[in-house]
Design brief:
- It is built from 10 helices and 12 strands.
- It is an alpha/beta fold and about 425 residues long.
- Among the domains are: about 100 residues, Rossmann fold, CATH 3.40.50.2300; about 150 residues, 2-Layer Sandwich (Heat Shock Protein 90), CATH 3.30.565.
- Helix 2 runs parallel beside helix 3, helix 6 runs antiparallel to helix 7 and helix 6 crosses helix 8.
- The longest helix has about 70 residues.
- The chain is elongated and about 105 Å long.
- The relative contact order is 0.07.
């Protein structure tokens, strides 16, 4: 198969670059060279290579600084560290800065080098495809949300007109009493028409709420889809390295099935959300929190984010367990995005659950610096978001508050505490 992939080699030793060029050109790659990080950044903007192989110790700009700069400007470009240090700490630091893999030099096995590069390029392709799919899904959801918002405005106008009609009917009611039985029958028919109109308006209002729920489901499915992608990539890597035994395969399958079952439950809850005969059930807050954390714990760990959960007491509440888990996931995902966006050192998400009298209290906080005071009163407003258009719709926290208040009779509040933001949920304990 003909290769047209461009690879940039960054190393201050000319002999190393020469040997690497020979290996890579024999494999069919297009190769460029740079002696340090500064040259690499300039050359990258000119040639746009698909992969960078860099040493760590170099003059002017070392490998770690180059990785950080590339991660800021071009986070989708894969980087592989090729270094002779051989230390685990160097590898971990490089991966923490944004490197995708770590290879010790000197490299003498051309087939092993080809396998690592091919795996990295394939992983990059899968991540780009996954991101394009999510962007497309978000665009569809936002388009539908705008349409439903316009329908809501039309419904409000129709309701105002209906209220005016009812006022006119009240004024004419005295005259209607003086009419004969035929007129009374006609009035009864008109009332029946008004009831049908009320049913239509109620149905259309549910459609508007359904659009908001679709947006929330799309937001909640991002992380499970990413987890599935991570399981598949790790499974492929273990297979290539002959580490995929029966026990590890069973573990991957179990984790994948748990994620798929959660996504299936989300759809089931969505289908049942508007049924009038849907019944609330008792569930334990701590267990619902653990289920939500289980879905995102691995992903947070790969991003260097620590999540701590402390529970005390068995707080049983009345409501819908999956919807409550969606509220927890919404707040966790918002905290994750802020921690990553602000590049907080030693990022932490804290979750605590306790019982106070007849109230269950859940707090979720982070150390990202808090919410600006001028935005605290707006975070629960529908369509309000500080993220880019492609990263959020502004409905997550709004839906979370609606689920707690309307579905469970609880409250959701936000304030700044210590060195970050803190969301507090208060839910009545079931008798």
């Amino acid at each position: 198969m003909t290769r047209t992939v461009k690879i940039l080699i960054v190393d201050d030793e000319a002999m190393v670059r020469l040997n690497m060029r020979a290996l890579l050109e024999d494999l069919g790659f297009i190769v460029f060279e740079a002696a340090n990080g500064c040259e690499a950044l300039d050359l990258f903007e000119q040639e746009l290579p698909e992969l960078i192989l860099t040493d760590l110790r170099m003059p002017e700009m070392d490998g770690l600084t180059l990785i950080r700069e590339m991660h800021k400007k071009h986070p989708d470009t894969p980087l592989i560290v090729i270094s002779g240090t051989g230390s685990i700490s160097s590898a971990m630091e490089a991966v923490h800065c944004g490197a995708w893999d770590f290879i010790e030099k000197p490299i003498i096995d051309q087939s092993a080098l080809e396998m690592v590069i091919s795996h990295t390029l394939e992983r990059s392709r899968l991540l780009l495809e996954n991101r394009r799919y999510h962007d497309h899904l978000e665009e569809l959801v936002q388009e539908r949300t705008v349409e439903l918002h316009q329908q809501t405005l039309l419904l409000e106008q129709e309701m105002a007109e209906r209220q005016e009609a009812q006022q006119r009917l009240a004024i004419e009611h005295a005259e209607l009493q003086r009419l004969n039985a035929t007129l009374e029958q006609r009035v009864q028919e008109e009332v029946e028409k008004n009831r049908d109109q009320e049913r239509i308006i109620s149905h259309q209002a549910r459609l508007a709420a359904m659009g908001e729920m679709l947006s929330n489901i799309a937001h909640q499915w991002r992380q499970p889809l990413n987890n599935l992608g991570l399981y598949l990539q790790n499974m492929q890597l273990d297979y290539q390295e002959s580490l995929l035994d029966t026990e590890r395969m069973a573990e991957y399958v179990s984790c994948s099935m748990e994620t798929l079952q959660y996504m299936s439950r989300t759809i089931s809850d969505f289908q049942n959300f508007f049924r009038p005969d849907r019944e609330k059930k008792k569930f334990t807050i701590a267990l619902a929190i653990q289920e939500a954390v289980h879905l995102v714990e691995a992903s947070l760990k790969t991003k260097g984010i620590t999540i701590r959960v402390e529970t005390s007491g068995e707080c049983a509440v009345l409501g819908f367990s999956n919807e409550f888990s969606q509220v927890v996931l919404n707040i966790i995902n918002n905290a994750r995005d802020v921690l990553l966006d602000r590049q907080v050192p030693d990022p932490v998400i804290r979750i605590a659950c306790r019982c106070e009298g007849k109230t269950g209290i859940v707090t979720i906080g982070d150390n990202a610096g808090g919410i600006p005071e001028e935005l605290l009163d707006k975070v629960f407003d529908p369509y309000f978001t500080t993220k880019a258009k492609s990263q959020g719709t502004g409905l997550g926290l709004y839906m979370a508050k609606m689920i707690l208040s309307k579905g469970m009779g609880g409250h959701l509040m936000a304030h700044n505490a210590g060195n970050g933001a803190e969301f507090v949920m208060e839910i009545p304990i079931a008798s």
